[in-house]
Amino acid sequence: MQLTSCAASVSAIPDETTRGLLSVKMVNLSSAVNAYFSTLSVPPITGSDGEILIEATKHDRRLLAPEFQPYTLKVQYQNPYAVLLLCDKDNNQAIMEDTVIKISTILPYISLFLN
Questions:
Q1: In sequence order, what DSSP letters do the residues of 27-73 get, joined into one string?
Q2: Which of 11, 50, 84, 87 has a CB 3.0–4.6 Å from the CB of 6, allowing a cystine?
Q3: Which among 70, 79, 78, 66 is positioned nearest to 29, based on CA atoms?
Q4: What whole-number distance in Å separates Cα of residue 47 and Cα of residue 103?
Q5: Burial 39-55, CB ≥16 within 10 A → b, else e
Q6: pLDDT tens, position by position, 63-97
Q7: CB of 36 within 8 A of CB of 29?
């Protein structure tokens, strides 16, 4: 599965308050998609972003918050994690990205910054 991208543009960036709200909602949503991916026996090869989001939020539909309506959500499987990209409705401008990774994945690199 490939994450089709949207171009980055400063004009697409919502105001600070909206970005804060969206970032909290994105963290929760990407956690749900990550949990959904962890239940699959094989990586998702087919399925639209919308289908994946619906499956991932079956347990709590509030995760697909109304705040996402003016935007497009894109989903990518990056073994074994989920990556979400929030774009404008026309997929012309990237707004934010969120992914869930295990701390053990980056732990070896943290020491590089502490020395």
A1: HHHHHHHHHHHHT-SS---S--HHHHHHHHTTT-GGGS-GGGTTEEE
A2: 87
A3: 66
A4: 29
A5: eeeeebeeeebeebbeb
A6: 999 999 999 999 988 877 888 999 988 888 888 88
A7: no
